């Protein structure tokens, strides 16, 4: 089975790696999709994020790709993936993810979204907080 793991991954951190590790126990092949999140202000340096993820992961079952302007469901279809991987940290994430799930099911009822809960010690910091800390440490 193949799956995609979409996200802005800005930066890719231990929580993302934790979710990926869990997903690798289920899926034969995973495409990490570095995506622009229209709800977040982030840089458009997709190549840099892609390189960092490749270095962090280094697994032949994982492929890192860039998505600048396609819907997640279209990427899943393009790579013949039956599942979308998502991570959950909190009840706030769940509320957002429920809408995300419904939207994707509307677009293609045959592609399933599977959720992983990151381990407790990995879910404390979001990418946004990590970037903010790094900014103040400059």
From TrEMBL:
Signal peptide: none annotated. Residues 4-132 form the Cytidyltransferase-like domain. The keyword RNA-binding does not apply. Keywords: ATP-binding, Coenzyme A biosynthesis, Cytoplasm, Magnesium, Nucleotide-binding, Nucleotidyltransferase, Transferase. ATP binds at residues 8-9, 16, 87-89, 97, 122-128. Its EC number is 2.7.7.3. One of its GO terms (biological process) is coenzyme A biosynthetic process. It holds the Pfam family CTP_transf_like. One of its GO terms (cellular component) is cytoplasm. The keyword Phosphoprotein does not apply. It is an enzyme of class 2 (transferase). The record marks 16 as: Transition state stabilizer. Its main location: cytoplasm. It is found in: Cytoplasm. Pathway: Cofactor biosynthesis; coenzyme A biosynthesis; CoA from (R)-pantothenate: step 4/5. Substrate binds at residues 8, 40, 72, 86. One of its GO terms (molecular function) is pantetheine-phosphate adenylyltransferase activity. It catalyses: (R)-4'-phosphopantetheine + ATP + H(+) = 3'-dephospho-CoA + diphosphate. Homohexamer. Reversibly transfers an adenylyl group from ATP to 4'-phosphopantetheine, yielding dephospho-CoA (dPCoA) and pyrophosphate. Belongs to the bacterial CoaD family. This is Phosphopantetheine adenylyltransferase. The gene is coaD.
């Amino acid at each position: 089975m193949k799956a995609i793991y979409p996200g802005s991954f800005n930066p890719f951190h231990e929580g993302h790696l934790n979710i990926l590790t869990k997903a690798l126990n289920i899926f034969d092949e995973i495409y990490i999709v570095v995506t622009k999140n229209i709800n977040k202000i982030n840089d458009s340096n997709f190549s840099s994020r892609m390189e960092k993820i490749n270095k962090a992961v280094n697994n032949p079952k994982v492929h890192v790709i860039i998505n600048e302007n396609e819907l997640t469901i279209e990427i899943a279809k393009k790579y013949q993936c039956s599942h979308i991987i998502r991570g959950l940290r909190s009840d706030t994430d769940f509320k957002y993810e429920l809408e995300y799930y419904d939207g994707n099911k509307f677009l293609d009822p045959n592609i399933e979204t599977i959720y992983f809960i990151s381990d407790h010690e990995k879910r404390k910091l979001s990418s946004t907080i990590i970037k903010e800390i790094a900014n103040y440490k400059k």
